[in-house]
Amino acid sequence: MSGKITLIQGDITELQVDAIVNAANNSLLGGGGVDGAIHRAAGPELLAYCRTLNGCDTGKAKISPGFKLPADYVIHTVGPVWQGGGHGEAEQLASCYRESLKQAAEKGLKSIAFPAISCGVYGYPVQQACDIAVNTVSQFLAQESSLRKVIFCAFDNAVHQALMNALDNHKLH
Ligand code: ADP
User: Fold this and answer.
1) Which of 6, 42, 93, 171 could be stapled to 67 by a disulfide with Cβ–Cβ 3.0 to 4.6 Å?
2) 34, 60, 119, 153: which to mutate for ligand 1, most atoms within 8 A of CB?
3) pLDDT band at 172; cut points 50, 70, 90
């Protein structure tokens, strides 16, 4: 099961996978960070499509085509804004990973790549977020068999290191 998980450092928009996950906002109408990069790489058709999705609640996920991206689909999920940890942020973040994986499994997709949801402008403490990411994905893969490959795509060094720590810890348990 852990053999299905890979960690890379780079730009998620360049990955040739069945789906990449977008750390979007509730409007699904684009933003900064990875959201902006995905919309730029996918082209204006993505925004036009997202207008038809009527937004997305925090912790949920919606799927669109990838348009000009090498990935076939984009799964848009909305992470929690960090507010100190006492506002259900951990459960919402875990839900983002679960709901995204569910969308991928429902479409029969085999490979999916995640950015570090909520670890940018949404301010989630990076190590805590990466621990949740690794634990939630591992739990899902233990039950769901159609997915063959889950890639964690770290953009910056801090996230890359935190994901390595989380994966190492996970193997020990
Ligand atoms: P959020 O609003 O959920 O915090 P951000 O886009 O601000 O989302 O940041 C989420 C993570 O995505 C951050 O770790 C950021 O460094 C990373 N990121 C930004 N651009 C890219 C990219 N092109 N590919 C992969 N990750 C990216």
Assistant:
1) 42
2) 34
3) low
